[in-house]
Amino acid sequence: MQLLECEDSSANIQAKIKLTVFFNIIESCNIIDKIGYFTLDNASNNGTVMQHIAKQLSEQSISFNPVERRLRCLGHVMNLVGKALLWATDAEAFQAEITNQQDLQQEAEELATWRPKGPLGKLHNMIVWICRTPQRRDWFSECVKKALGPGTKALSLINGNSTW
Asked: Are strands 38-40 and 70-72 parallel, antiparallel or unpaired?
C-alpha cells in the first residue's frame, strides 16, 4: 500500500491513511474513472481532502474539479441555519442555554426527592442552595462567623465535595 504524498503533520496522517485506503478500494473495484460527487460538511479539512483526490486523479489523467464535486450536507446546512435563526452568531450561547435548562430540571427533581424526607431533606436542600454559588457560600461563612463571635475559629460546615 503506497501512501499518498502530502504534508507529514500529525493532522494529516489520518487523512493520508484514509485517502490511501480509499484509492486502493476504488482501484481494486475498477471504479476510479466513475468517481462522482462527495457530500461533506463545512470543515476546512474536507476541502483539503478534495484537493488531494483531484491531484491523485489528475495523475491518472482523470478530470476532477474538487469545488464542483463537493456537495454540502443538507442536514448540516439546516442545522447551521437553525442555530443562526435562533442565536444569530452565538451558537455556543444556545448550547449553554440548553445545558442550563437540563441542569435546572435535574436539580429541581433532586430537591423534590429530598423534600418529603422531613428536617433532613430541608437541611439538604438548604445546603444545596447555599453551595450553588460562591456568593452564597461567602454569605453563609460570614453568617457563621458573626454567630460564633469574634476570636472563635469556625470549622467549615459545608464541604463542596460532600455528597448526600
From this structure: parallel
Answer yes or no: is pLDDT of 114 > 60.
Answer: yes
Show the beta-strand stretches assigned E in the chain.
38-40, 70-72
- Does the predicted model carry a pTM greater than 0.85? no
Bridge partners of 71? 39
Tracing cell 467549615 back to the chain, one arrives at 156
Closest C-alpha to 82, from 98, 101, 103, 69: 98
Domain boundaries in the chain? 10-72, 79-148
Amino acid at site 145: K
Query: What values do phi and psi take at 51, rounded to 5?
Result: -65, -40
As a whole number of angstroms, the distance between CA 111 and CA 123 comes to: 11
| Calpha distance 30→13 (Å, rounded) | 26
Q: pLDDT band for position 122 (50/70/90)?
A: confident
